[in-house]
Design goal:
Radius of gyration: 23 Å
Bound molecules: beta-D-glucopyranose
Structural class: mainly alpha
Distance between the termini: 62 Å
Strand order of the largest sheet: 1-2
Largest sheet: 2 strands, antiparallel
Order of helices and strands: HEEHHHHHHHHHHHHHHHHHHHHH
Strand content: under 5%
Shape: globular
Length: 486
């Protein structure tokens, strides 16, 4: 496929839908929504299914934690392997593998005859989620033109919350019949859909260039994005690739990048140890303890306080993050989360002395509901999306992919530890103390953000790197002096 000057000067015309929207970009958006919602669905669905599984398989507290948390363990492993897989086989094939694993795992979950098949299937689902959660956003970031890249990346977070909401709705519809197998099995459908759509999509121009397939890269760029000077843009991409190729894992841990890496890891870990997934996974259980006696009441309370509020508040963040800046959103959110958690702790402390007798939600139940809304809303417009925005911004281009993988792995690791221990901690020290620990960790996060996290609002990725370098120089100067005689 020889390139002529006349050919590169003619703007490529991608296929349009409704005469306006670029068809293939729309499909890229669909892929992001699907990978995000798969992740969200599986995060959310267990909250409604757990009580029925516990009854069916006579699960101890530890086994309830294993059933819940092994999705995150699988996702941790999947996310660690996903980068290599997406580089070797391509982003598109990595998404297909993620979708297949997800569908197989979901089938296994829904047919599981006993606990261990269920646990293994949860791990397989998580493995698929982990791969898709890296390959999907990577695919979108590489496919989308820079003018809409931010929107594509933030729609991933929105998709997670939509997945959680869909899971809550399916829990509500299916819980009166106790149909937990169907709750878990329903996620086969989006898994299969992801596989089918991904099979119809090309890989990204950047991946084709890496693989030495310039003709395919050119065809894809013209088809998906279009516009003038396709060859010129491919040349720029090729130059960027040359800069990032040959980067080793040890480069991520180089002393000059250490501060950025710690900020990335800190954000990822604090996002989890402030309790979000404990609340999401165990929300029905929290509501049942707070006086919502029927499974139906519990799931309705969950749909409102977790599902809907999460989606709406995330929409606010996506719209405001560039206006208000990252740190003000984080501060406000962390204050709200602390207030919500202290109120949940207080209502449980009250509940301990005045146990509910059944017959509909008690005053404590209503207070817990409101406190949960405050907590989830505060998370969803702050730590939820802003952490991922910052993690995508703070690393230099050269090591961004690998450094983001490290931060993501820490995020899954922290999510695993929290969900694998939450019930046991609650049994050991009681609900009020458990929620107070999460509240205390919100306060720690607040001050850590204040001291360690840079404001990136309105800065280009290059300016952010310059700011790190200046900071390091300022710190290095007195050190160099004091170590001059070493
Ligand atoms: C977190 C997930 C969490 C979700 C809730 C994401 O930013 O990484 O662990 O389940 O937000 O909306």
């Amino acid at each position: 496929m020889a390139t002529t000057t006349a050919e590169s000067a003619t703007p490529a015309q991608p296929k349009l839908i409704f005469g306006r929207f670029r068809f293939w970009l729309f499909m890229v958006g669909l892929v992001v929504i699907l990978t995000g919602s798969l992740f969200g669905y599986d995060q959310g669905v267990i909250s409604g299914a757990l009580q029925f599984i516990t009854k069916a398989f006579h699960l101890s507290t530890t086994l309830q934690e294993v059933v819940t948390s092994w999705v995150t363990l699988g996702a941790l492993v999947g996310a660690l392997l996903a980068g290599g897989l997406a580089d070797r086989l391509g982003r598109q094939r990595a998404m297909i593998i993620g979708g297949i694993l997800f569908a197989i795992g979901a089938l296994g979950e829904s047919l599981a005859p006993g606990t261990w098949i269920l646990v293994i299937s949860r791990f397989v689902v998580g493995f698929g989620v982990g791969i898709a959660s890296v390959a999907g956003p990577l695919y979108a970031a590489e496919m989308a033109p820079s003018s809409v890249r931010g929107r594509y990346v933030s729609s991933y977070q929105l998709a997670i919350t939509i997945g959680i909401l869909l899971a809550d709705i399916s829990d509500a519809i299916l819980s009166p019949g106790g149909k937990w197998r169907l709750m878990l099995g329903l996620s086969i459908a989006p898994g299969v859909l992801l596989v089918l759509i991904a099979m119809a999509m090309p890989d990204t121009p950047r991946w084709y260039l890496r693989a030495g397939r310039r003709a395919d890269a050119k065809k894809t760029l013209a088809k998906v994005v279009g516009g003038p000077d396709v060859d010129g843009r491919l040349d720029t991409m090729q130059a960027e690739l040359a800069e990032t190729s040959g980067v080793k894992w040890k480069d991520v841990f180089a002393p000059s990048l250490r501060r950025a890496l710690w900020v990335g890891i800190g954000l990822a870990v604090f996002q989890q140890v402030t309790g979000i997934n404990a609340v999401i996974y165990y929300s029905d259980k929290i509501f049942s303890l707070a006086g919502f006696t029927t499974p139906h009441d519990q799931t309705v309370a969950t749909i409102i306080s977790v599902g809907l509020v999460n989606v709406l508040a995330t929409l606010i963040a996506v719209a405001w993050v560039d206006k208000f800046g990252r740190k003000p959103l984080l501060y406000t959110g962390l204050i709200g989360m602390t207030v919500g958690l202290v109120a949940i702790a207080a209502s449980f402390a009250f509940l301990d002395r005045h146990p509910t007798t059944g017959g509909g939600p008690s005053v404590t139940g209503i207070v817990t509901l409101i406190a949960m809304i405050v907590y989830i809303a505060s998370f969803a417009f702050s730590l939820g999306p802003v952490v991922w925005t910052l993690i995508a911004e703070i690393f230099p281009n050269r090591i961004r992919g690998k450094a983001m993988a490290v931060a993501t792995a820490f995020n899954w690791g922290a999510a695993f530890i929290v969900s694998a221990t939450f019930l046991s901690i609650m049994n050991a020290i009681g609900e009020p103390a458990t929620f107070l620990i999460f509240a205390a960790l919100c306060v720690v996060t607040f001050f850590w953000v204040k001291v360690k996290v840079p404001e990136t609002k309105g800065k280009s990725l290059e300016q952010i790197q310059e700011a790190w370098a200046e900071h390091d120089q300022a710190r290095q100067a007195p050190k160099t002096l004091s170590h001059a005689t070493d």
